[in-house]
Amino acid sequence: MLSKKTKYGLKALTFIARSESGMPVRVGEIAGSESIPQKFLETILLTLRKAGILGSKKGKHGGYYLRSHPSAVKMTDVMRVLEGPIAMVPCVSLNYYEKCDDCPDEHQCSVHRLMIEVRDSTLKVLRNTTLEDLALKDS
Amino acid sequence: MLSKKTKYGLKALTFIARSESGMPVRVGEIAGSESIPQKFLETILLTLRKAGILGSKKGKHGGYYLRSHPSAVKMTDVMRVLEGPIAMVPCVSLNYYEKCDDCPDEHQCSVHRLMIEVRDSTLKVLRNTTLEDLALKDS
DNA sequence: ATTAATCCTATCAATTTAATAGGGATTACA
DNA sequence: TGTAATCCCTATTAAATTGATAGGATTAAT
């Protein structure tokens, strides 16, 4: 399951990408428009800022803005920041590899091989999708 | 993340598929060989039996066996039984569809569209993989 | 009968998730 | 200079999920 955190984060990024004005977007505005609890969204956008995806401006007329053009914001990056590893098992993760304690030899593990295929197919989608694609309207 | 339940279940199914004798396989034997807590595995195999994937024989010399040839056991079915929906959001699930409360129109939801693509690519893998594939040794 | 197995359901502890709380720090601008 | 608006930070909490265990009931072979 996709966490609410990730879902809210993606919606917020889309909202910011669509807001063409170039001005920082207030958390409250996003929260209101997208039906997201504001305080929760604050922590999410903070995470995205710390990850370098968003920038922020404090104080009156402050808010969040994209650090790069939407076409340069890859879903792989966003998902890793918000949802964590893309792989479904750590022993198959490119960025967060970890050995399983219940596997003497992962090259003979049937689950391992299946999960590599799932990971690769998911990666293909996420690598080929950017925030610009998400921000397109309709269909 | 793949749950332990699913991981254990897949390993157990692989073990049974590899055990060519045709005789029912005891839970204890699988648990021992695959380092799975036996009592936990009992409940998992029970689930697989209730789903029609495994059959069982009670009493002495009892155990679990496959109801179909490994090549007929699709990963889509196994995953749905053990892990639940393949889609990452309910509004994109083929078998467990549910509307999101925070989406006025899901056809305009950017997350929705992305998740359809992820679902389809995962489905393609899972539909094309059977227990027979998992049971192949090595690489 | 005895033994060895599955079957069933309840329960528990740990973790994760979703959300809230309560301010602190910074900035615009009157 | 002061005040309102905004992001920043961390802690806490409640609910849900997960992983595992417990304790027998039932069934079948010998």
Automatic annotation (TrEMBL), chains A, B:
Q: Which residues form a coiled coil?
A: none
Keyword Transferase in record: no
The residues forming the signal peptide are none
- Keywords assigned by UniProt? DNA-binding
> Which SUPFAM superfamilies is this protein grouped with?
Winged helix' DNA-binding domain
InterPro entries attached to this UniProt entry: TR_Rrf2-type_CS, Tscrpt_reg_Rrf2, WH-like_DNA-bd_sf, WH_DNA-bd_sf
Q: Name one GO molecular function term.
A: DNA-binding transcription factor activity
**Domain of life from the UniProt record:** Bacteria
For this record, an example GO cellular component is: cytosol
Name the record gives this protein: Rrf2 family transcriptional regulator
Organism equals Seonamhaeicola sediminis
